[in-house]
Here is the input.
Amino acid sequence: MGEITRLSIFPLAGALLFPRMQLPLHIFEPRYRALVSDAMARDRRIGMIQPRGDGDPPPLFDIGCVGRIAHVEALDDGRYNIVLEGVAKFRLLSELPVTTPFRQIEAELEADEPAEPLPLAQRAALEEESRRYADAQGYAVDWNAVSRLDDESLVNGIAQIAPFDAAAKQALLEAPDLQERTELVIQLMQFFSRHAGDHDDPVTLQ
Here is the structure.
């Protein structure tokens, strides 16, 4: 069993954080400005987790990722620009009754194992599908820089920035290892590329 800890959380749909990855955020809502201020005064940790649907407050998915504030820029009007650095994934155990404007949970941190390198054929398939997907979406990509990324940075980077829906993003976060996440990234890029022209309805996997 992992470490049980109390986390202040920032529920944000579509925003994924992985261990060893970075996530830049612009903080403007008063409750999340209070969250950043509180985190800076304590351990600099914020739990990133996606809301699961609507509601006030919205229900949450079970798995998120703890980030440590690696960089903070306090703006004159009280807003912040921050960069979170992923520390460990966590499982939500319970929401805590609090008086703070931001939500807090009890969570179990997952042990973080270094990722095994991808088989060469899987890495090649990922790069090939990434090129096809980028072309379909009209993205300009520095492929030389992409080819130099390590497997984990490439797979998790795509998972973070690709415009998949919240359910797809959550599935990527919850994938048990890098090879399974890679397979899922490839499938999602194929799925969303095929439906890129379907503008009548937003594409979702829910």
About this structure: The chain has a mean pLDDT of 92. The longest strand covers residues 80-95.
